[in-house]
Amino acid sequence: MAVRNKPLLLLLFLHILLISAQSQDIVYLKALKDSLQNTPPNWVGSDPCGEKWDGITCTDSRVTSITLSSISLSGELSGDIVQLSELQTLDLSYNKGLTGSLTPDIGNLKKLSNLILVGCSFNGPLPDTLGSLSQLGYLSLNSNGFTGRIPASLGKLTKLYWLDLADNELSGTIPVSEGATPGLDLLVNTKHFHFGKNKLSGEIPAKLFSSEMTLIHVLFEENQFTGYIPSTLGLVKSLEVLRLDRNSLSGNVPSNINNLTKISQLFLSNNKLSGPFPDLSGMSPLNYLDISNNSFKASDIPPWVTSLKSLTTLMMQDTGLHGEVPVGLFSIPQIETVVLRKNQLNGTLDFGNAYSTHLQLIDISNNLISGLTPQSSSYTDKLILVENPICTESETTAPYCDPSTEVNSSYLTPPNNCNDSTTCGLGQVSSPSCQCSYPYTGTLSFRAPSFSDLGNLTIYTSLQDSMMVCFESKKLPVDSVSLSKPMKNSDDYLEINLEIFPSGSERFNRSGISRIGFVLSNQTYKPPHFFGPYFFIGNNYDFFSEAPKGKHKSISIGVIIGVSVGGCVLVLLLVIAGLYAFRQKGRAERATKKNSPFASWDPDKGSGGCPELKGAKSFTFDEIKTCTNNFTATAHIGAGGYGMVYRGSLPNGKLVAVKRAQQGSTQGGLEFKTEIELLSRVHHKNVVSLVGFCFDAGEQMLVYEYIVNGTLKDSLSGRSGIRLDWMRRLKIILGAARGLQYLHDLADPPIIHRDIKTTNILLDERLNAKVADFGLSKPLSDAERTHVTTQVKGTMGYMDPEYYMTQQLTEKSDVYSFGIVMLELITARNPIEKGKYIVRVVKESMDKEKDLYNLREVLDPTIGLSTELQGLERFVDIALRCVEETGNKRPRMSEVVKEIENIMELAGINPNAESASTSETYNSNSKGNDHPYLKDSLFEYSGGHLDSSLEAK
């Protein structure tokens, strides 16, 4: 019977682990809430999925989406968000109050497919770890304050469709691949490169483009690029929009740019381009051409211009043109705007007998035009000829010679709102369907529209209609939309004010705003093609409904009598309660003293509440401020649910890591005292040492020795850049085993760690292993030599199933976790990955009759050649003994240490030799990691998600 029940017990264990992961999400969401202001008011309770928190979407009770647009969020994005392991979409767009930098740990969100932070105030460098988000399809970080270089690691995002980094402060060159270093040239499936309005510099790399790329938008406007336009650009035949304007590009336009036969918008203006005019005759779909303000070789207007039958806008200001303006230029069927200012054009201007009915503006000012044919004089729209001989050498008063004539870059469209808004309440606007309501507003910015006639109402009608079709198909609570005040800004973007009106109510709720914002931020809405690429910046919505207030009711005589009687009873109860409180006062004071052991401790007087320390120092708050340079940003090395971690330097030069608990996350004084007393007695070369603590000025801080090379997990995952071969792995695991054996056998009292995992094994400058983080540790008293009955705490995947089922914690629980670490060491896999448990993966792959137990497919490829893996089979054997289902079948840590020593001797390694090599010996890109203390600290809430259910049982 017991044998048959084992699979059921394992399934039950894994099921409970899944519930554990689900309940962890609430912990991290609450940490996110604590780091932000103006979060939705319904973010209360313990079930964000079942209670449907605004902006939170769940799948199978796990948080998979956070979309919170335009709700006035402010603050910094908590690092705890990276613990939401199932998160696929993160959209916090249009919240200008959001600041701070992106945590490098964002690379841990392996399932993230949409990262959208448009129109916020984030700053700092883009973390290299963005390249670890292998599922990312949309990366929209435009309109923030990000600085530094574009990470080369983005080249690893093979599924990336949309890359928008525009309107930031990014600098440096565009990264391309070199050797093993990735670059943006590897993004052959990406359709959008939007990098405009930054400070990018250097040459546009020729390697960036190739015939394999499928780009349709390349927007590099308003940067600081120099050098030539790379000829490889002509290989990307899928291109539809190209903006290279407002840079310092020079030289000839490459002739093969004419191969881009799908181009509809081409902007090359405001550069230093020279040589002959490029031949663009192959660009038959071209609608919008702007090559103004360059230094092309003096020439007549190229004949290919009149062959572009789709052209709506021709901008050739200050480009060295001379000769007469060809008549055919004005008969291009769709032409709307012709700007030829500041050239040397001459002769008599002739529009011909059949000029286009779409013509809105002809600006040929500052040229040498001497006359105008009679039929051209009948042109009734805007014609500008100031600073031409026709105006300066005669006294004509024709409108086209009026110097006050200006090109209007804006247009007031007639409102399509039903009524004057003065008939509505304060803050309300009349919608097109005659409803007074509070609209969601913002600005649509089109980066490369194919038209220039801002007064064409039919165009905006098509935009409104397509937007409503999209909103209706997504079942959004939208009644109607209104567009107004289209204008061209200094970047040649078309900006349009947008009002979106709610349906079924006069206000939107937060969920509705976030859903609408997401449709616009992640480009779900596709405008008509002639509007081109766009982005939306929403305004904060300030009209959410408040909770309904109770209605006033008349008070009857019966109610008055009832209240009077109740009041008398209440007075009597208060008297009784006062007497009881007085009797309990002594007890309360004694309990407070017991639960707050620091309350009577004065560090300067050495009062009896002082912890019994062995080698650890008590620091004042001022001392910690000094050693961390007043907790400056440069000393900040990470954050977690418990608070911040800072690097510090003591007066003797010793580097330390200071964990500073944030308000609300500090534990009780008794627990804090117990922990520091326990840690101060732990002294071993394979255990991280406690330097001291601070319990002063309302602060709880722990001061550790600073470990430079981060966690074992970092090295196994490749994040640290340290390469671990088989020999190095054996030395690391032996050090960790010795540290754990010390805790079990030699510490006084013995200690069960309770949270052994690869993130709690740190590597020093010589890659010696040190066991860290004793936040969940339990000392064994003389009466508890066999086990401790305690609430279940630990980390999913590493936790002993027997401990979980019985709540009886033993040393063998640490042995089980250590066995998982051993398997992780040789496979570099997470304990639970894609629903598969590492123990099962190894056992199912094993064949003891074959070389290396037939485990080559599951081994970490970077571990080394198979001929070098001497002793691997014995290593697997002892690891699997450690993860036996029952503790009595597992070895003690002293046995594990002995077996690893034997394996090392078999491999020709002296297990007692000190490591003579530093991390540099095994480091391809050593970064001197700053984050060995960032996970599961003493202050972090751990395991509570299991406790409540177990206590109920």
How would you characterize this protein structure?
There is one protein chain. With 953 residues, this protein is α/β, with parallel strands linked by helices. Among the domains are: 421-538, Alpha-Beta Plaits (2-Layer Sandwich); 617-705, Phosphorylase Kinase, domain 1, CATH 3.30.200.20; 712-949, Transferase(Phosphotransferase) domain 1 (Transferase(Phosphotransferase), domain 1, Orthogonal Bundle), CATH 1.10.510.10. The protein is built from 16 helices and 48 strands. The chain has a 15-stranded mixed beta sheet with strand order 2-3-5-7-9-11-13-15-17-19-21-22-24-26-28.
Summarize it:
The protein has 953 residues and is α/β, with parallel strands linked by helices. The chain contains 16 helices and 48 strands. It starts with a helix and ends with a helix.
> In the CATH classification, which architecture of the domain at 712-949 applies?
Orthogonal Bundle
Which blocks of ≥5 consecutive residues have pLDDT under 50?
A: 1-21, 547-565, 586-609, 918-953
The third-level CATH topology of the domain at 712-949 is: Transferase(Phosphotransferase), domain 1
**Shape type:** elongated
Cα separation of the termini: 24 Å
Proportion of helical residues: 10-25%
Widest sheet: strand ordering: 2-3-5-7-9-11-13-15-17-19-21-22-24-26-28
Radius of gyration over alpha carbons?
Answer: 35 Å
Mind telling me the CATH class of the domain at 712-949? Mainly Alpha
Strand segment count: 48
Please name the fourth-level CATH homologous superfamily of the domain at 712-949: Transferase(Phosphotransferase) domain 1
Proportion of residues in extended strands: 15-25%
What's the total helix number?
16
